[in-house]
């Protein structure tokens, strides 16, 4: 991960440089860089049981798989801690003139991996469970406990983005401020299940011309993906019955009834990251 000291030294060096931008490079370029994510956020998790709606979220709780020494919590209240170990990108694009300034258009590929710390749980393997009320042959109500094993140890994104940038050039300095916006799609792997989601990003920073063919940049990147549901199979774990040895208590009878499964969808509506990126662009088809 890029240290704050390194970023500060790089930015200071850009500000001190006085090289002119009079001969700005035009043409195609190849770029690559590293993205240091410092803030990650995932929206509230929601659940749908069978063909029912999102209100079922209040019925679903999560706990360690063995449910020992930890306290279960509602799915909607669960908040993990997201720690990014790695993110990198490559891009192919074109730089052109726009009045006294310049623009860039590019196609970017990016990979990122965010480590998940399941706060309050012993491991990344957790159980999503809920109680379902059914009626037996005598029309009496029974409570059945259902559960699905969920692995949540990291979130991976493989993204393809189309980006557009605007650069403000200056004849006095060797750097130019820029802003950029991108849209595209990402293959997000969450709970060990992949899904394709629409994505977008915003960028802003400084671009520095090292020589006629090479530029470097450093700046902010905000990346976001719209969520969707991920399907799991919940299995009936048993019937919730009165504990004859403890008055007023309940216990689980795993031998009750036949094996039953049903679909449960778990998902979030938004995942986004914020951080600092730095990289190089190499112009291989240019003109003065």
Automatic annotation (TrEMBL):
Q: Print the keywords alphabetically.
A: Signal
- The stretch of residues making up the signal peptide is 1-22
List the Pfam families hit by this protein, alphabetically: Surface_Ag_2 (PF01617)
Name all Msp4/OMP-like domain ranges. 25-247
- Matching InterPro entries: Msp4_OMP-like (IPR002566), OMP/PagP_B-barrel (IPR011250)
Protein name stated in the entry: P44/Msp2 family outer membrane protein
Highest lineage ranks of the organism?
Answer: Bacteria, Pseudomonadati, Pseudomonadota, Alphaproteobacteria, Rickettsiales
